[in-house]
Each structure stands twice: as structure tokens, then as C-alpha cells.
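does this look right to u?? NAI version
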Amino acid sequence: MLTVAASRNRSAPWPPALSLRASGQQTLLRVTGDWGRWQLATQVNQGLFPQLDMAGSEQAQKLVYLVTGGCGFLGEHVVRMLLQHEPRLRELRVFDLHLGPWLEELKTGPVQVTAIQGDVTQAHEVAAAVAGAHVVIHTAGLVDVFGRTSPETIHKVNVQGTQNVIEACVQTGTRFLVYTSSMEVVGPNIKGHPFYRGNEDTPYEAVHKHPYPCSKALAEQLVLEANGRKVCGGLPLVTCALRPTGIYGEGHQIMRDFYRQGLRMGGRLFRAIPASVEHGRVYVGNVAWMHVLVARELERRAALMGGQVYFCYDHSPYKSYEDFNMEFLGPCGLQLLGTRPLLPYWLLVLLAALNALLQWLLRPRLLSAPMLNPYTLAVANTTFTVSTDKAQRHFGYKPLFSWEESRTRTILWVQTTEGSAR
Ligand SMILES: NC(=O)C1=CN([C@@H]2O[C@H](COP(=O)(O)OP(=O)(O)OC[C@H]3O[C@@H](n4cnc5c(N)ncnc54)[C@H](O)[C@@H]3O)[C@@H](O)[C@H]2O)C=CC1
Ligand SMILES: C[C@H](CCCC(C)(C)O)[C@H]1CC[C@H]2[C@@H]3[C@H](O)CC4=CC(=O)CC[C@]4(C)[C@H]3CC[C@]12C
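got this back:
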């Protein structure tokens, strides 16, 4: 009862002091002041007062989760997956700079869905959203490899934003933090070294120059180093990081861009990268499922999972970026022309450099940024595939969606959102 009141009425004025009694008899705790109240709420949430958890026999639905970036491509899937597959959920807080209208339809279900419009770079907004949550899933981030945003902004959102989330957990007593990292913290590196069927322990020379992978690597490091820090109330923070490879599925903006590009070119796309360059791809539903499982198991297996990184993987086939996209765009009427790249590689390098130069010269007037730049070309042209079972060993992960299901769902999404090219 008290936990609910504390977490739902953050802005309401509070009485100066609060006594907590179990079964109306014994006084368990007396607190004064705002932070004391949050600490109390947290201690109740953390199961320090099992009598209270049992009171009201709401044992099944007692957890409060916060998903930052919950209205993004991955975040929306995490939110929907939690509502479907986390029966212990009582409240789900969805924190995002831009809230999606689809959130409204979720508010009628049995779980309280709280939409919070906020900015991860604003420490006070993050702290208010985190207070009283058991678990934070931090997916918010600026995903920009096309040079649309300044390096400073990318750093601010991805690194400072993550630091704010960590500090909010520490201050408010939230113990479990799951961070959405990226394969990009490992590679591909600028030297073009292949990472072939690698796992979390595979040695690789990670060299980051581009603002996006730099920011993800720094943020991941902050999260992992925060594992074990004492949070308000004295218990240790348990953190871990998930590293998806290229995510695809319903809502994938780059897939939509390729589709539109193909339509503009009369249903044709031209091969730019050799078919032999393989990319790790993972279905968004399986990435979301991994987040749900990690969040669920982090408490029980804190010693094993705390401070760990996990690649996100499933049964999607290893293919080149373009051939993989054709698994979905082909059935929507597009054709990929050429068994070999249409243009020689040196010309692509030149075009990518030209794009970068133009972008720099026209800055900040450039409204849209081309997909081809030296960084995206290097990533697209370097094999990076993952083969691991660490997530299965540590927290029993098995993909929820088969490759066939993932493929079908993605095709349906392209067809229904954009219409068919046929
Ligand atoms: N898309 C991909 O292939 C991969 C993505 N990731 C990571 O997954 C996470 C989610 O990525 P996507 O869903 O693809 O991106 P997205 O851009 O669709 O979602 C990110 C969400 O974060 C929100 N956001 C951005 N700045 C914010 C701020 N200052 N305060 C609050 N919210 C803010 C955005 O509004 C958006 O809803 C990111 O952290 C990204 O680095 C990792 C590997 C691959
Ligand atoms: C845009 C690239 C493909 C176009 C190449 C061209 C112009 C020659 O046709 C994409 C190729 C690989 C993608 C990246 C990869 O999937 C890994 C990623 C992980 C993330 O965390 C964010 C997204 C991305 C960097 C992804 C971005 C697009 C590609 C570079």
C-alpha cells in the first residue's frame, strides 16, 4: 500500500513524518523527509518487508519497471514484451523524449502504464522517473551513424544520459539496471578486421573513432563499472549490458528507407557490397525478449550476471547486409541487381568521402544525410558475426521467435506500412 502511494504520487505534498506498521501492529520504520520516503519505498519494494508485500495479497503484481527510450524502435518492443511476459509487473513507466500515441491503448490493461515525457540528459527528470522503480531498462540513446547530430549531442545523450541513469539508481535505491549497448562497442574497427562468429570473449582490436560507437563504449563501461556500487539503503547495484548486432523487424527505420529507395528506382536496388561480407542481425522481438529475461533474472543470479555483457543473437542467418534485407524486401517486390557490386570499391570510398566533405561544408544547413559515408561503408564492408550461447548459459535465453516467424512478421510490417511494390 505504502509503496504504491509513494511511487504514484511523487508530486503530491507529503506529511512531515511517516510511520510504517505491518498488520496495523508493530512499527517497523519511521521516516522523515523526501529521500527517507523514497528509501522506505525502495526497501519495501526490495522485499525487506515481506509482510507488507504479502499484505493485500498482491504478490503476483508488485514490480515497477522503467524503460527509458520506451517509444523507440527497440523500446516499444521491450514495453510490449514486458506487458505480455512479465506477470509480476504492477507499473510500467515509459520514459522518452517523444511519447508515442500508441501508449494510450496500453493504459487500459491491468498494469499501470505511466508515460513520462523526459530527457535523459536532465538528471532531475531521470531521478524522478527512476525513484521507486525496481528495475531500469535503459534503451534510450541517439543512434546516429549518418552525421545528422553533432558529436557533442551524441555524447551528451548516450554517455551523460547513462551516467544520469546510474546516479538516479544509486540515489533512489533502484538495484537493477539493464543497459542496451551495441555490438559497435566491439567493432567493426576502422581497420576492417573481420569478427567472424565471435563471442563475448573473442579478442578483437576495438578502435573507436566515430562518435556513436565511442559513446556506446564509454556508456557501457560506466554501466559495468557501476556494478556493485552501494545504492541508497546500502544494497549493491547489479548491472549488465546487452549488445545487439544490427536489429531488424517491425519499425526498423533503415529497412523502410531502403524500401523507399528501391521504389523510387523502379523496384530495383543495386548491390554495393560483396555478398561474402557477412553481418550479424537479430530480430527485434528476440532482443526485447532478452531484455525481459535479463531484467527478471538479474536479482536471482546477481553474482553470475552482475557486470557482464551479452551479445544479442538468434537464429537469423548470416548474410551480407544487402542480401539479408532482401529476405524482406524481395517478397515486397524489390530486386537486388548484380551478383557482384555494381561500382568498384575505390569509387564507393571516393563517393563516401565526397559525401562527408559535402556534409561538412554545408553544415549545419544539411537537412538529410546520405547513408553512404566512410564510417557506414567501413561497417557495411566488414564481416561482423556473432556465435555464442552465453545468454543461454547465464539466464536461460532461447529465442522466442524462430527465423521464419521473424521473417514473416518483418515482411508483413513492410507490406502493411508501405504497400507492395508489385
Ligand atoms: N537499431 C539497432 O540496430 C541497434 C540499436 N542499439 C541500441 O539500442 C537502443 C535503441 O535503439 P533504437 O530503438 O534502434 O533507436 P531509436 O532511435 O528508435 O530509439 C531510441 C529512443 O530513445 C529516445 N531518446 C533519444 N534521446 C533521448 C533523450 N535525450 N532522452 C530521452 N529519450 C531519448 C528516442 O526518442 C527514441 O524513442 C539504443 O541505445 C541503441 O544504441 C544497439 C544495437 C543495434
Ligand atoms: C547504412 C549501412 C548500409 C548502407 C551501406 C551502403 C550505403 C554501402 O549501401 C548499414 C550497414 C551496417 C549497419 C549498422 C550495423 O547494423 C550495426 C549497427 C549497430 C548499432 O548499434 C546502430 C546501427 C548500426 C550502426 C547499423 C547502422 C546502419 C549500417 C551502417
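Residues 151-172 form the longest helix (22 residues). idk if thats expected tbh
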